[in-house]
């Protein structure tokens, strides 16, 4: 990686964004013999992957888990020589119902009344059948796509059952845990895409599947090692301000450098495209499309303790409740660490609410919620940190972008289509691996293949 330069560089391809998608694309293009330059606005590579040491504790500030279906990520980890380890899951999970009652349990289905459990199982089976009909790369081609995209997931659930606890629990897996938006804010088609991207709705319900492994030393090593392979072709602290384009190429300008190239890849979340001035402007279709895409919002809470005390109680630390401030939490203890780490999540409207409080009040509320799962020891971490991607200038939300009602069926087929020499690649527009680093890698590979074919054509 090099320091900024005022020189005008010439490359075959310039990549905007040094996350997993952009760096994967850059490496694939280099392998094909094309020259590249990667411009990154931040002072680090990784995008929404960030492993940091805070108060002496290594924390996965951004994405961190690896599931068995994430073949592109697993291949990349093997290629980079990175090791994984299983998330701790020995012992009981805990669930808190609407009355605040805690129940220990094992398995995937929460300990709810028998009638509610029956409804939950029926809904999971129904959603699995619907998901099986969805191509995650082309959900808009489903024969009922427009109808499903007009109905919010909240409304769809209400049409299926009047069992509120069953609806709340099913919604939790999509709204709180994945899209981080309230279920009235996204469509049933968007929910089905989220599940299809993981293989089934059942996979989203199974924490032991979707949150299977972690990377020894942190997942940000993926972009860090990919960037190392590119060396001096990665430029940090270079927010791109302007892209001038014609059918014959592009000129990409940051505050302190300019790159002329045949192609440009926008490897950043689509909510950030408006930060760039295009000349000529992007076509009307793109302008409209990008106004129908928005980020979710979640606070990722890290609490480190002198020991993993919950294990002494026979708990795995896996915890769920649609009725708690922290709607889910897990054992996030680092590989080989004697200390214990919990990670919890506060999503959408609840995250809005606690950010109206002072930092100390917010910390108190969140730790109080964790104590409802694990007891009073949870209130006394030795390290406490909140990942707030909503205030991060070059992200502006978490975990990723999704369409509003009607947007996926209306615009989904166009989101990956290049505009002249401008190509698009990020996890937000992936099929398999949607919203995950696996999807970012898949998109980086896909766009690199397209450019190589076009360059040679």
Automatic annotation (TrEMBL):
KW Nucleus (keyword) present: no
EC code: 1.-.-.-
Enzyme class: oxidoreductase
InterPro entries in alphabetical order: Amino_oxidase, FAD/NAD-bd_sf, Flavin_amine_oxidase, Flavin_MAO
Domain Amine oxidase span(s) in chain numbering: 21-451
GO terms for MF: oxidoreductase activity
Co-factor requirement: FAD
The keyword NAD belongs to this UniProt entry's keyword annotation: no
Domain of life according to the entry: Bacteria
Keywords, comma-separated and alphabetical: Oxidoreductase
Family indicated by similarity: Belongs to the flavin monoamine oxidase family.
Full protein name: NAD(P)/FAD-dependent oxidoreductase
UniProt organism field: Microbacterium invictum
């Amino acid at each position: 990686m090099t320091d900024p330069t005022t020189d005008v560089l010439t490359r075959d391809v310039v990549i905007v964004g040094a996350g997993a998608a952009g760096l994967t694309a850059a490496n694939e293009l280099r392998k094909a013999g094309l020259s590249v330059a990667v411009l990154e606005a931040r002072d680090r590579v990784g995008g929404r992957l960030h492993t940091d040491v805070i108060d002496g504790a290594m924390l996965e500030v951004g994405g961190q888990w690896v599931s068995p279906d994430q073949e592109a990520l697993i291949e990349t980890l093997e290629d980079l020589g990175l090791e994984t380890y299983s998330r701790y899951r020995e012992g009981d999970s805990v669930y808190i119902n609407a009355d605040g009652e805690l129940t220990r349990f094992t398995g995937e289905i929460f300990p709810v009344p028998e009638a509610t459990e029956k409804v939950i199982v029926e809904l999971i089976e129904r959603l699995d059948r619907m998901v099986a009909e969805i191509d995650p790369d082309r959900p808009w081609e489903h024969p009922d796509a427009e109808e499903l995209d007009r109905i919010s997931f909240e409304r769809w659930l209400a049409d299926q059952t009047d069992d509120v606890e069953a609806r709340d629990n099913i919604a939790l897996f999509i709204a709180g845990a994945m899209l981080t938006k309230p279920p009235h804010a996204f469509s049933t088609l968007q929910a089905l895409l989220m599940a299809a991207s993981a293989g089934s709705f059942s996979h989203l319900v199974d924490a032991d599947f979707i949150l299977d492994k972690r990377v020894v030393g942190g997942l940000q090593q993926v972009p860090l090692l990919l960037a190392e392979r590119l060396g001096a072709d990665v430029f940090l602290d270079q927010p791109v301000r302007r892209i001038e384009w014609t059918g014959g190429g592009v000129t990409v300008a940051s505050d302190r450098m300019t790159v002329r190239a045949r192609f440009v890849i926008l490897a950043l979340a689509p909510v950030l495209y408006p930060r760039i001035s295009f000349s000529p402007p992007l076509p009307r279709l793109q302008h409209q499309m990008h106004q129908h895409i928005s980020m979710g919002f979640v606070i990722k809470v890290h609490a480190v303790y002198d020991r993993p005390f919950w294990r002494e109680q026979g708990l795995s630390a896996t915890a769920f409740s649609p009725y708690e401030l922290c709607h889910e939490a897990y054992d996030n203890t680092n590989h080989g660490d004697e200390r214990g780490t919990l990670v919890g999540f506060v999503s959408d409207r609840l995250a809005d609410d606690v950010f109206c409080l002072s930092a100390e009040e917010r910390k108190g509320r969140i730790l109080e919620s964790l104590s409802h799962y694990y007891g009073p020891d949870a209130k006394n971490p030795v390290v406490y940190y909140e990942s707030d991607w909503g205030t991060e200038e070059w992200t502006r939300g978490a975990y990723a972008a999704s369409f509003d009602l009607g947007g996926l069926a209306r615009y989904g087929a166009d989101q990956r289509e290049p505009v002249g020499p401008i190509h698009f690649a990020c996890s937000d527009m992936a099929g398999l691996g949607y919203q995950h680093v696996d999807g970012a890698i898949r998109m980086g590979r896909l766009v690199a293949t397209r450019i190589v074919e076009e360059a040679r054509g």
